[in-house]
Design goal:
Distance between the termini: 56 Å
Shape: globular
CATH topology of one domain: Rossmann fold
Number of strands: 11
GO molecular function: 1-deoxy-D-xylulose-5-phosphate reductoisomerase activity; isomerase activity; manganese ion binding; NADPH binding
Number of helices: 16
Strand content: 5-15%
Bound molecules: nicotinamide-adenine-dinucleotide, magnesium ion
Strand order of the largest sheet: 4-3-2-1-5-6-7
Enzyme class: oxidoreductase
Oligomer: single chain
Pathway: Isoprenoid biosynthesis; isopentenyl diphosphate biosynthesis via DXP pathway; isopentenyl diphosphate from 1-deoxy-D-xylulose 5-phosphate: step 1/6
Order of helices and strands: EHEHEHEHEHEHEHEHHHEEEHHHHHH
Radius of gyration: 20 Å
Cofactor: Mg(2+); Mn(2+)
GO biological process, one term: isopentenyl diphosphate biosynthetic process, methylerythritol 4-phosphate pathway involved in terpenoid biosynthetic process
Structural class: alpha/beta
CATH class of one domain: Alpha Beta
Helix content: 40-55%
Length: 397
């Protein structure tokens, strides 16, 4: 097995973890290219260490900064700029595997292109499936891309469905499944009262009890919209109807999800809560590879707890379920309004509890409009843009 990888979003939490795991493959995986939107210092250090051929940065200023910071005697990589270059690189045939680790809808065009290019795609960027699940999966099947989710729950479901085998037909598997039990840690505010959520700060929202993640997904996990996104993700990835997907709060985060079959058998995937495991599985699939994460000690763990999710305290969860039922336009609005609201919250422009209010108001705003027809990528991006304009306006009222 030899793979050549391009990491879209290499300076983020997933990107860095992916590089750590690549080190454990001892040369069987070569890093062909990297991309970053900020943290150019980090990108330069990564490009030097992995001797990459190409980097993609957002603009001319970032390109100049990259040049300035490149003090190494090695040949400087080709430096491309802008989101169009990410799409072009997705089609480049010099490598075979994409790690889609950009955060938000910004990662969608390049992920769609990677599917059209028939790559092996290690998908972290769940927003792609939230806003364009149908289109993305169509491309995956039509262009014979190989899709392996690395979101921990979906990687767990993937493992429960096909174990170590290659080639399960996910289009047909639904009939044998009774339920998917999507586990959730419950986030940092599981024990909080509804009232105390008013005073949550960005710092508190970003300190997740089990996972160390980028700021946007940390806030998404705390509002539980992340779990709502993951329901949508499960639906598209595995062709499972919403009625068969249940959320189960499991604070220890050791069971990463379970599949219950129609005969009453349940298969679960367990491991330490560390993204290194799904990434390692996906890079090596179908061969398992050693990594440095370590093993679960059941005597230390002693018990596993499970609870129902609280839809009153976490209204974003209901908003996501509703959006999935109502269709793609609602999911695009849900995602765009959430991205704007989370950004405003992280910049201390709105209160924590306003996040769900802004999403709700954006969905109501959309429902007053004539329904949108969404036939292509431009239609999706247009609805995303006008929703952001609306959501930004109400962030300032
Ligand atoms: P992060 O914020 O730590 O990193 C994001 C990366 O994307 C960075 O390299 C950044 O430079 C790049 N980026 C940001 N905005 C961009 C833009 N407009 N254009 C191009 N590149 C841009 O995020 P993360 O926590 O690594 O999460 C990445 C994705 O993986 C998200 O979709 C998240 O939901 C998903 N995910 C993350 C985790 C986790 O443990 N961190 C787990 C499951 C899924
Ligand atoms: Mg997850």
């Amino acid at each position: 097995m030899f793979r050549r990888v391009f990491i879209f979003g290499s300076t983020g939490s997933i990107g860095k973890k992916a590089l750590e795991i690549i080190d454990t493959f001892h040369g069987d995986i070569e890093v062909f290219g990297l991309s970053a939107y900020s943290s150019i210092d980090c990108l330069v250090a990564q490009a030097i260490k992995y001797r990459v051929k190409v980097v993609v940065v957002p603009n001319l200023e970032a390109k100049e900064l990259f040049h300035k910071k490149w003090t190494n005697k090695n040949l400087i990589p080709k430096i491309l700029i802008g989101s169009e270059s990410l799409v072009d690189m997705a089609y480049d045939s010099s490598y075979d595997t994409v790690i889609a680790a950009i955060v938000g809808i910004a990662g969608m065009p390049s992920a769609l292109a990677a599917a059209k290019a028939g790559k092996r795609i290690l998908l972290a960027n769940k927003e792609v499936l939230v806003v364009a699940g149908d289109l993305f999966m169509q491309y995956v099947f039509t262009f014979k891309a190989e899709l392996i989710p690395i979101d921990s729950e979906h990687n767990a479901i993937f493992q429960c469905l096909c174990g170590n085998e290659n080639g399960i037909d996910f289009k047909k598997i639904e009939n044998s499944i009774n339920r998917i039990l999507l586990t959730a840690s419950g986030g940092p505010f599981r024990g909080y009262s509804l009232d105390s959520l008013q005073n949550v700060t960005p710092e508190k929202a970003c300190s997740h009890p089990r996972w160390n993640m980028g700021p946007k997904i940390s806030v998404d996990s705390s509002t539980m919209i992340n779990k709502g996104f993951e329901v949508i993700e499960t639906h598209w990835l595995f062709n499972i109807p919403t009625r068969k997907i249940e959320i189960l709060i499991h604070p220890q985060s050791v069971i990463h999800s379970m599949v219950e079959y129609i005969d009453g058998s349940i298969i679960a995937q367990l491991s330490k809560p560390d993204m290194g495991i799904p990434i390692s599985y996906a890079l090596g699939f179908p061969i398992r590879t050693k990594n440095k994460v370590g093993f679960v000690d059941f005597t230390e763990l002693r018990k596993l707890d499970f609870y129902q999710p609280d839809f009153i305290k976490f209204p974003c969860l209901s908003l996501a379920f509703d959006a999935l039922k109502l269709g793609q336009a609602h999911c695009i609005v849900l995602n765009a309004a959430n991205e704007v609201a989370v950004d405003a919250f992280l910049n201390e422009n709105i209160r924590y509890t306003s996040i769900s209010r802004i999403i709700d108001a954006s969905i109501n705003w959309y429902e007053q409009k004539i329904p949108y027809s969404l036939n292509n990528l431009d239609d999706i991006l247009h609805l995303d843009r006008i929703t952001r304009d609306f959501a930004r306006k109400i962030c300032h009222v």
